[in-house]
Amino acid sequence: MNFSRSVYFKEFCDGILRLPASEFSPGSVSMGISNEIERIVNKQAGGYWDITKSDVTFIRHMKQLLALISEKAKPELDTLIANLCEQALSVSESKLKVVFLTQETYCWPSFESVYRACDQDERYTAQLVYIPFSHPNVDETIDYFTVYKEKMGLPIARHNEYSISEESPDVAFIAKPYDLIPMQYHIDEVEKAVGRSIYVSYGLEITSYYSEYLFGTALHNKAWRFIVYGDMVRQLALKYSKCEGRNIVAWGHPRADCYISFKEKRDSIPPEWKERIAGRKTVLWNSHQTVKPNEGYGTFFKWKDELLSFFYNNRNVFLLWRPHPFMSRVIINDGYMTEAELKELESELISWGNVIIDKSNDYLDAVYASDAIITDGTSFCLEYLYSGNPLLLTYKPLYDDKTGESLESLLFEDDIFKGEYVALEQNDVTSFLEMVMKNEDPKKNERMELTRKLFTNNPEGNGEHIKNRIYDEIRSEEIEAGGRVAYSR
C-alpha cells in the first residue's frame, strides 16, 4: 500500500482495537469496509489506468478484515487484527510518493522548489515525468525531455514510460489546466487513479480576460489543492470556483523561491552573456504572443519601433529580448511578417552589439541578468515584482467587441497602476528607459507595498512550506477518515 492507504489502514485497525467490546458494532464496521471498497472500485472503473497496485493490496487487506470481523469476536478479534495490521504495514510504503507531471521547461519553476524540498526529505519519494504539450505554435524542434534529463540533470521519465497503476503515487502535481496532452494525463483520468492532485499555476494569475482559464477549468475544481500566490487572488478565485473554493489555498507560489538571493544569482548567467553585456545596464523585454488588436495582451507592434530606436541610439544600455515561446510562429502564421523578414530583424538587432535575443529553455537567466523589465500584461508583470527591480507594464486596453465598452484587462488593475510604471502613450517607454539609465526609481516604495499586498511568502521558502503542508494535511485527513469508519455504529 502507498503512504495514504497505510495511514488509513493503521488508523482503521487501531480504532477497532481501542474500542471495548460493548461499543464495537461489527455490522456497522463491516458496512463501512464494504462501502469503502465499493467507492474505490467505482472511482477507478472505466478509466485509462488499471486499479493501482496500492489499491489492489488495500482492498485485499480490507477484505481480510471483513472476514475476521464476520468470524471472530473480541478479544480474539483484536489479536488477529493487530497481527494483520503489523504484517500489512511491514511491506507497505512508509514514504509519501509525489509525482510531478511537468511540461515545457518554462513550467519547471512552478514545481522546482517543491520537488527539491520533497526529494531531500526522508519522508518523501519524489518522481518526475515529462508530459508533452501539443499546440500549433509550439516549437517542435525542442526536445524538452532531453533538456530536463541531460542539460538540467534531472531523473525524469517519459510519459509513456511511467505507469500510475504500477507506481501508485499519493499525489500528482499537474502543470497546466489544458487538455492538449496525452489523454491518460488529463485530470479526469488522473483523479480516478491518484488519491490527490495539486495544481500550481505555471504563471501567476493576472489576466482578467481569461478568468475561466485561470480559475474555472476542470483541473481547478477537481484538484485536491489549488495553490495560489496570495490571499487577494484566493478571494478572487472563489468567485469562479465551481467547488465553493474548498480546495483553494494561499500557500505562496514556488516561483518566488527563484528570487531568493536575487542579486547574487547574476553570477550564474551564461559567461558569453556576461562578456557581451560588459557591465552595461540591462533591460529585459518580455513580449507576449497575442499581437492582434483587441486580443490578449501583446503590444509588440505598438511599442517595438520606439523601444528598438532607444537601444539603437544608446549602445551603452543593453537589451535582453525574450519573446514568448509561441510568438515567432504567431507572427509568421498570422501573416504579420514572413520568416525571412523576422530573421532579418533579429540579425539586425544582434549586429548592434547591445542586444541578445533569448530563446533558451530557461527564462531565469534573462531575469537574473536584468536591472529592469518591460513586459506585456502577462504573469511577468507580477512575477518580476519578486526581484525588487523597476518594472514597466506595456498596457493594452481591451474593449467589448459588441458594445465597444472598455473591459478591465488585468486583475487588481488599480493596485498595479499605483505600484508599477505603465506605458500608455507615445514616449512612455523612452521615459522609463531614461529613468533606468539614471538609476532613478520613484515608485519603488509603492512597488514594494504592492508586492507585500499580493504575495504570501514563507520565511522557510514557499516550496518547503508547501511540502510540509501536504504531508501534514494528508496524514491528518487519512487518520480522520480511517477512524471515522472504525468507529461506525
Summarize the structure.
With 489 residues, this protein is of the alpha/beta class. It has 21 helices and 15 strands.
List keywords for this structure.
alpha/beta, Rossmann fold, 3 domains, 6-stranded parallel β-sheet, elongated
Overall description:
The structure is a single chain. The protein has 489 residues and is an alpha/beta fold. It folds into 3 domains: 3-92, no CATH class; 96-257 and 458-472, 3-Layer(aba) Sandwich (Rossmann fold), CATH 3.40.50.2000; 262-454, Rossmann fold (3-Layer(aba) Sandwich), CATH 3.40.50. The chain is 45% helix and 13% strand. The strands form 3 sheets. A 7-stranded parallel sheet has the order 3-2-1-4-5-6-7, with helices on both faces. Helix 5 (112-119) links the parallel strand 1 and strand 2.
